[in-house]
Amino acid sequence: MRRRRYLATGGSLVATLADGREAIERERSVRDVRTDDHDDGDGDGDGSDVEVRILETNAPVRGGSLLEAAVEVENVGPTRARPGIEFSYEGEYRWTIRTTVEAGESKTIDPIRFRTYPVESDDEVTVGAAVENGGDADERTAVVLAVDPLHPDRTRPDRHLSVRPETSLLFEVLDVERYGGRSQWFVDREHAGASMGPWYGAYYEREGADFWRTSFESPGTHEVAVAVLEDEDEIRRATWSVEVAETGVEPPSIEAIRPDEESLEVSRGEPTELQLDVAHPDGLLDRVVWWLGHADVVLDVTPVSGTTDTATYELESSCHRCPIIVWVVAENGSVASASPWVIDGVDDAPDAELGVTITETNDPVDAGEVLEVSARVENRTDGAITRDAELIVGHDPTLVDRASVTVGGGETETVDLEFETAVVRRTQTFPARVEIGEAADERTVEVIGTGDVGPSVTITGTNSPVRTGEVLEVTAELENPHSSTLTREVQLVVGHDPEVVETRTVTLEPGATETVILEFETALVEHDQEFPVRVETEGDADEVPVFVYVEAPPMLVRILDTNDPVATGDVLEVTAEVENVARSTATRDVDLVVGHDPTLVDTETVTVGGGETRTVVLEFETALVRRTQTFPARVESGDDAAVRDVEVIGTEDLEVDVTITGSNDPVDAGEWLSVTAVVENASDVAVTGEFEFVVGHDPTVEDGATVRLGPGGTTTLEMGFRTAIVENDQTFPVRVESALASDERTVEVRGTDGA
Fold first, then answer.
1. pLDDT for the residue numbered 20
2. Which of 631, 615, 613 is nearest to 623 (CA)?
3. CA distances from 351 to 67, 269, 437, 438 (A)
4. Which of 187, 193, 258, 673 could pair covalently with 275 via S-S, beta carbons 3.0-4.6 A apart?
């Protein structure tokens, strides 16, 4: 099953797994797509009798797009072989795919994808495939076509920069047509990633721009480039030359913050003024970007200028435990970033006569429908009060409804407010805020874009495989997750050249589900065939492969179980059953393919006797992701496959805490400084975390430990390092951190002068 959802981002349900994995591992010199060797002890060959050929590529391609290659692996030896095929691009190793090939047979790996560089003139690149350990190899030259430049007015900063080492730089493409990974970024000609994710989306909503942040440690001249997809056919390019030297331009700095306490106590309906004193030695101050962390929202962009300036923002959004993050951006793109405040408390206005609490909304609602918000108003005085209750919506707050309400002394009343949402294609979430007098309450609501309006579709089964000429049945479950009744056409679409073979009209009440069986009579064919069937309706579709046989059915695959949900970074296990419905023994590869952009991640070769079954367990180490993701896991063997949606819990949805509980400071210079930290997993799933002990104002990793905790589990870490011999007393921060959680403490080292 390959599910296609038409979402607000204009892309797939989650970021492509392969791209997400590359983004996590791009600092590594090797990225193994498949390296585990499930040797079953049947005497696989070592690959010396394996030949590899690049059959074709999709060249010529435009620079910045994907170059695809099909590779054939042939086993010319007398025994089965399981070679690792190493792929290279421009002579540099990229990854290895391991696969099993029977004696005298061949297998095609297709497609193998490489992201090309946005060249300014036509160029040639080489792609290579080689059997590991010096085996057979092949190479193919491909043409990469030039792309036209972006106008300088559409990029920030200037194209030629001079900065100091480790300066963070912000590169931007302005006036991007729409959000959704349309900007691919390259650093020193290596693909770095795409402008895709919550922060990129929030920045696009505010500025209409895609961005990329990077820094350079080593002096010298570096290059940053971007390939921008302008429409379906046109790609444009921009490049920046960055000279990194100790004499380069300094980045901006934050000189002071007000309030000067990290913890913020805010009152609903009463803005809290935040101020930053910022500076740049060369007078290049440009703007301050204010972010609301956890919510992934750009609160404001404040212009600044000159050598010193003060940026002010009146905080009105209330988000308990959310950090306020600021980027101070200079004209040359250099950035100073910090998280000066955290919202630790959200209260009503100090002397508010009224209190207000949003009790209910009817969201999510379809685009163009009416959003209804109910709020309870409490009178905290002895006398009756009449006030206007206002409904304010959006990240750029807009008053959309107002109603007068009278509340007797010590009593409560309910007020209902509403507004007609705009017709938008992309699903949107935004704050809905009710204000009355000095009191306010806020809730995040969702409007389902027209691209997503419709029932969800899940194919729950087919009677595949069927003999040629017989009727194929496809069973699908339709669910209406929306608040209104839906009447939609449901179509059964079959074939590689899609054809609608049956149409059904279905009406679903809010929250209702309905099972439909769609069917068609297969054609009489001479050879076994596999092809896709798809059940689709407005806003959603689901697709599975089916098999039509002439003489005998293929080996069948069923998914028995998975260990999902799993925490991000953990191993996903898929247990599958393979059934040989023929009389003779058969040997097949069983592959695990994951993601909306399917990626092969594990393979096991099994031998199954006639009429027997065999159980296999396939694994995949999930990528580190912030947000929880659902994607298809597909087990396939030969001509049959089974699919199940699995869930990976992102770091922001895991309840993992680390607390530094003690340290042996103060210690004398040169002595061992240690800290004790308790890690607690309050999540419903097991977690694995790589915790680091980070020391100093110029943070340095001094120690580390791997922790695995079951649900509700705790453990204690002891970490430390040998302090430097210094003359003067020093205090500095130490931090125990991972992608899951962190904690920090200030420690003291006594210098030798005080001895």
1. 30
2. 631
3. 65, 11, 11, 8
4. 258
- Around 375, how many Cα atoms within 13 Å sit in the side-chain half-sphere? 31
Let me know the angle formed at the C-alpha of 336 by 333 and 337, rounded to the nearest 5 degrees.
120
pLDDT at 727: 86
> How does DSSP classify residue 101?
B
Radius of gyration of the chain (CA): 30
- C-alpha span between 646 and 563 (Å, rounded): 9
- What is the predicted pLDDT for the residue at 43? 42
Q: Hey, what are 77's tokens? A: 């030896």
DSSP 728: S
Tell me which residue of 358, 326, 325, 350 sits closest to 265, measured CA to CA. Answer: 350
pLDDT at 394 over 90: no
Q: Could you tell me which residues are beta bridge partners of residue 273?
A: 314
At residue 495's C-alpha, the angle toward residues 493 and 500, to 5°, is: 25
- The residue among 107, 52, 44, 109 whose CA lies nearest residue 78 is 44
Q: How many CB atoms lie within 10 A of CB 456?
A: 19
pLDDT of residue 575: 93
Q: Report the chain's mean pLDDT, rounded to a whole number.
A: 83
| pTM (2 d.p.) | 0.49
- Of the candidates 536, 647, 643, the residue with the CA atom closest to the CA atom of residue 598: 643
- For the chain, helix, strand, coil in percent to 5 are 5, 60, 35
Q: What's the per-residue H, E or C state across 96-116?
A: EEECCECCCCEEEEEEEEEEC
Which of the four pLDDT bands, split at 50, 70 and 90, describes residue 10?
very low
Pairing verdict, β 285-292 and 263-267: unpaired
Helix (H) or strand (E) holding 145: strand 137-145
Q: What is the per-residue burial (b if ≥16 Cβ within 10 Å, else e) of 664-681?
A: ebebebeeebbbbbbbbb
What are the pLDDT digits (tens) for 495-545? 877 788 888 888 888 778 888 899 888 888 877 777 889 898 876 788 888
DSSP-assigned beta bridge partners for residue 545: 532
**What is the C-alpha separation between 398 and 375, in angstroms, rounded?**
18
Please choose, from the candidates 200, 172, 193, 195, the residue with its C-alpha nearest in 3D space to the C-alpha of residue 182. 195
- Considering all CA atoms of the chain, what is the largest pairwise distance in Å, rounded to the nearest integer? 96
Four-CA torsion 697, 702, 703, 704, nearest 10 degrees:
60
Cβ-based burial of 77 (10 A; exposed 0-12, middle 13-18, buried ≥19)? middle
- Band (2; pLDDT cuts 50, 70, 90): very low
Three-state SS for 44?
Answer: coil
Looking at residue 355, its pLDDT comes to 85
For residue 475, the Cα-to-chain-centroid distance in whole angstroms is 31
Residues pairing with 414 in the sheet:
376
Q: Minimal CA–CA distance to 203: which of 225, 230, 170?
A: 170
414, 376 contact by CB (below 8 A): yes
Specify the residue for token string 């972006």.
150
Determine the Cα–Cα distance for residues 82 and 451; give it in Å rounded to an integer. 45
Q: Between 189 and 489, name the one with better pLDDT.
A: 189
Half-sphere exposure of 753 (CA within 13 A, CB side): 5
| Cβ count near 503 (within 10 Å) | 11
pLDDT, one tens digit per residue, over 709-739 is 888 889 998 999 999 888 888 899 999 988 8
Nearest alpha carbon to residue 85 among 76, 73, 77, 75? 73
Contact 642, 601 (CB under 8 A): no
Name the nearest CA neighbour of 612 among 639, 561, 577: 577
Q: Which of 104-113, 347-356, 530-539 has the lowest average pLDDT?
A: 347-356
User: Using CA atoms, how far apart are residues 611 and 242, in angstroms rounded to an integer?
Assistant: 66
> d(Cα 399, Cα 396) in Å, to the nearest integer?
10
Q: What is the DSSP string of 461-476?
A: EE--SEETTSEEEEEE
Q: Quick check: 158 and 210 in contact, CB under 8 A?
A: no
Structure confidence at residue 318 (pLDDT): 66
